[in-house]
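request received
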Amino acid sequence: MATESHEFQAEVKQLLDLMIHSLYSNKDVFLRELVSNASDALDRLRFEGLTRPDLLPDEPLAVGLVADAEARTLTIADNGIGMSREELVHNLGTIARSGTLEYLRGLEAGAEVNPDLIGQFGVGFYASFMVADQVSVVSRRVGDEKATLWRTDGSGSFELEDADRDFAGTTVTLHLKAADAEDGMADYTSEWVLRDIVKRYSDFVAYPIHLTMMRKEEGEDLAKPVTSDEPINSMKAIWTRPASEVSEDEYKDFYSHITHDHNEPLLHFSTAIEGTFEARALLYVPSQAPFDLYHREMAHRGIQLYVRRVFIMDECRELMPEYLRFVKGVVDAEDVSLNVSREILQQDRQIAAIRNHLVKKVLDALKELKDAEPEKYLGFWAQFGPVLKEGLLLFDEKKERILELLMAHSTHEETALTSLSDYVDRMSDDQDAIYFVCGPDREVLASSPHLEAFREKGVEVLLFSDSVDEVWLQQMPPEYREKRFQSVGRGEIELGSEAEKKTADEARAQDEEHYKGLIGAVRAAIQEDIKEVRLSRRLTHSPSCLVLEEGDLSPQMEAMLRQAGQDVPVRKPILELNPDHEVLRKLQGIFDDNGTDPRIAEYAGLLYAQAVLAEGGQLADPSAFTSKLAELMLRALD
Ligand code: ADP
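response:
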């Protein structure tokens, strides 16, 4: 077939442009990306070879680097799975992941992208264009006879031609730009530069990396290849080495290697399972949430599963629950079958046992961090708290353990977060519940009329404003240190000591008698919107508020369910009125004079509207409300 030319997808063009003009000083990372692609391709072939040994090459699986100073080329070759013509077009001409596309589309013209991010994006190959002005790839898919050459100079298009390659695999050849120390561009044909980069970033790659230098002897015309005797990487599985022999830098580099995240991890720990099932794990908690934490395709690189040091799969979801999807690392199991498939994994008792063990260890490690380094823990919480709280939605998870890790805003100190145990420690003897308020906006929550009596009595209330809070709090969380959770906006609330409650009950009975007729009239006026009208024990300043009954769905929950297409019955709240408020007293006066005075219905409507607005809600007819208000202002001014 003759040469064929293809346009790059628009976002790839944009990305290439960013790479070509990158001012980023650490250009060495391109090699890490290409070696990691080669290593992935070898992993995939090795995995296929477990069931189809005929696909495996005679030669050992390996990566080869060839540097030619005279031609100014650097070649990275592997005898891995290879790519067909279609795969070359798709993999190296388009961006598949929607998260990455969205990110690129959101970039301003001329923006700089930190190439540290590109590994996470799944576009590492394009980092080559930081150092090369021409890139060609010859690849042959395992099982195919023919190879294909893919070539581009990084402008808008690439070319394809038929090619030859003796065995399956991929060879990437970079035509290097001139070395320029100021621009962070080292001489990537220098043996020492290459050794150093491989050692730094790719030492753990599980396959040997061989380095070949093209050298010209004195008086000869042609350069000859000289290959290193030993691989230039150590290939040591870091999790099999005693922790005392592994340096912090090695742990960090291994983290970057498996996650393509180049921030320092927040913490790492190793754990071994002994007994019936044996396994080792090395786990990391990142310091930064990946940009796609809430995308479905996230966990692209989560927990890698190895069986007896053989790589089996990336992203083994069966080993970590969704709510710990930010945890990264490696699990190496002793007795799992090498041919294990996803279907088997889901039912495997051993995998379930390993998962249980890992969940416990992760929760232990987080608890330890919280106790020992509270500041650092707050950093973790800011990044991953809402994800961790998803665990509170699960049926059989260790909810109490998660509650121990929970941090929340509180009326105790509005700018700081508190833990539940600190909250319970501060509770007075006669407080029998953990009080909370939940809604989408923390500022609205903090000024909610529901808090008035709590503030006056000095009873602390937790403020929850993540969208996941709505759901786990609605599902009735378990008790924490024998204290139940109680919403301040639901049911009847009674605060204070037994004696205080008794006095309050007596006063309430009197008030109820006093306001009986008025309450009936208010109810009659607004019965379409509310279920009941009653006197409040929560209010001290505001005249009215809305409350729910214990089992009712919150307005946010209702909205979420409706959005999800569910048929949610219309729920009416209860209107509570403040018996000590001047407005109520005056209304009672009007009622005493004339029980059918039209102003009672008017004010009833306003008391309801006020209560809706105070909790950040929306009125069904805002313009009716504003004209009513204007009318009242005029009357008051006259
Ligand atoms: P990522 O490796 O993060 O998915 P890249 O842009 O580096 O993103 O590569 C895109 C895709 O091209 C890879 O997912 C892989 O399918 C394919 N690819 C890249 N290099 C190789 C290689 N050496 N052998 C086989 N496939 C490769």
